[in-house]
Amino acid sequence: MGLPRELEFDWESACQDIVNAIRWHLKNTNANKGVVGLSGGLDSSVTLALAVRALGKENVFGLVLPEEGVTPEEDVEDALKLAKALGINYKLVEISPIVDAVARQVPELVEKDTAGRLRKPIAYGNIKARVRMIVLYANANLLGNAQVLGTSNKSELLLGYSTKYGDHGVDLLPIGDLYKSQVRHLAEKLGLFDRIWTKAPAPRLLRNQTAESEIGVGYDVIDRVLYYRVEERYDEGKIAEELKIPIEIVNKLCSMIVQSHHKRKPPPICKIGSATINWDWRMPVE
Amino acid sequence: MNKLVDSMRSKLIVALAQVASKMGDIEGNLSSVFEYVEKAKAAKADVVVFPELATSGYLSQGIFLETAEREATHLGRLMKASREICVVLGIVEETDYGMLYNSAMVLGHGNVVVGEAAGVKQRCYRKCYLPTYGMFEEHKWFASGQRIPIFVLDVPDIGRVKCGVVICEDFWHPLPVASACMRGAQFVCAISSSPKTLRKPRMVDSLIMTRAIENCVYVVFVNSAGSEDMVNFWGGSEIVSAEGEVVVAAKEMEEDFVVGEIDLYKLKKLRQINPMLRDERREVIEDYLSAYEEMRRV
Question: With an 8 Å Cβ cutoff, is A278 touching chain B?
Fold first, then answer.
């Protein structure tokens, strides 16, 4: 599958950068193991493959976290198949009982309208991402010196197509500077099996949910719009002209970037003193 | 080599110490510097060059405030180590006024080699162009240098060799290397901590080659390697001749040490054949300054 010209990149060099970055981060946080949540999808599969390259199979722990009735069987099969193929230790934890327990205590989450649709589907969907985060960290803590490797890509990060403290609640984001199409390209080049890199991207928080249908256009378009807006700083009109697409699509994507700025920043701190953390007091991870 | 041959030596041996500094570990980074200085001496190098901010690491943010003080306790040892070799080292320099500079110190003959520009003496080269765009925030921590001093090295069996120094963003602009050359630089150390991006290595390679050719000068590019805060520094240090040819190149991405030669005789001949400096014109330089002022007036 070819990449659009704008998104072409030296995938081997990018892999090496990511491997180096994972090693650096773990070394500098006194960790020696990585935990990755495996959905059977593209992002987590690529993240896992790179984590194994960086840390060795014995130092990577995979967690398959399906939800009954929502996660397709083929996703679980793909996740397990990859974990086995890469020779890592892994565990399967069904999250439905935890999600149900939360819903029992906060019943408004699962209230339905007269047509039988959830009244608050986003709030309910977010619970699942956050439950997964809890299970990932619980296992990282149990392993000892382990860090949770997030699986978000640049497209999702820019669109805010993720859950705060859910899939965002991680220690590092190895593929966070690669657009979705580039991750797909990487999966192909890394030799991950076809079904992983040809699968339609889907967060699987709700039944039959796919990212492209929610946003309304495919990642082939999304990524090029994001590229021109973020890397080249083109304005909306120029992007529509360049890509020969309706301005409405460009406007929608660009407004998603703006509306999700808050998701990409640490919680803001009200400045009172003279050495406010992250404004004045800026320290690297040593 | 016997004395007669030594006295005819025209090739300067330069070692490129492409270190992977660790943020905030001033003592550990200096230990590595001392190791590479010894390695360069063993390789019979006349000069050893380290990357930008080699003592502190590039992304050290708040740690820069305490770097110079911690470096100072090692200065005596650095001078001692430079008795038989010249050392060009990226440091954090602090003045009595508490100002910090992203600087390069040149040491030789057991002393700090003082640079000079238009009669002004300067203990270190101070980076002039401090990037603040994109991921860079150098102006938050450092003051800008104002001039491009020349450092005269006294090299055994060769004599006086003039060296210019520029730091990273400086060589993205055409003037600093040109100024060093007009002050007589026979080679320019272009030290950097260049973070890797998809396009960066190719762009920097082109810039280094351009600076070498347009000024008819050897450029010694020494870049950091390794990672800091999930940012990778791509290494790829090299010596590029005045004709734009790569004399020697270090590996990309990882710590490395390579040694190459600068042929001073060949440089002199090339400057006769390719008189870029001779052909420089005052009118054009003055017009450049006018153009700058016009741009700023808008």
Answer: no
Q: Are strands A33-38 and A146-149 parallel, antiparallel or unpaired?
A: parallel
Q: Would you place residue A208 in the very low, low, confident or very high pLDDT band (cuts 50, 70, 90)?
A: low
* pLDDT number for residue A194: 76
Domain count, chain A: 1
Using an 8 Å CB-CB cutoff, list chain B residues near A13.
Answer: 198
Is residue A132 scored above 60 in pLDDT? yes
Token pair, residue A119, equals 């009244």
Chain A: give the shortest CA distance to residue B235, in Å. Answer: 12
Name the least confident of A199-208, B52-61, B152-161, B216-225.
A199-208
Check if the beta carbon of residue A217 is closer than 8 Å to that of residue A227. Answer: no
How far is B290 from B288, CA to CA, in rounded Å?
5
- β-bridge partners, B143: B101
CATH number of A158's domain: 3.40.50.620
Average pLDDT, chain A: 92
What domain range includes position A133? Answer: 5-201
- Across the interface, whether the CB atoms of A23 and B25 are under 8 A apart is answered no
A154 in contact with B, Cβ within 8 Å: no
Residue ranges with strand state E in A84-187: 89-92, 146-149
Å between A17 CA and nearest CA of chain B: 6
Flag whether A222 is in a domain.
Answer: no
Chain A residues with CB-CB distance to B253 below 8 A: 16, 20
Q: Side chain identity at A213, as an amino acid letter?
A: S
Who wins on pLDDT, A86 or B8? Answer: A86
Say if A261 falls within a structural domain. Answer: no
For residue A15, the distance in angstroms to the closest alpha carbon of chain B comes to 11
> Could you read off the pLDDT of B237-258 as tens digits, one per residue?
999 999 999 999 999 999 999 9
Q: What band does A284 get if pLDDT is binned at 50, 70 and 90?
A: confident
Prediction ipTM score: 0.82
State whether residue B150 is helix, strand or coil: strand
CATH number of B3-297: 3.60.110.10
pTM: 0.89
Q: How many CB pairs under 8 A join A and B?
A: 45
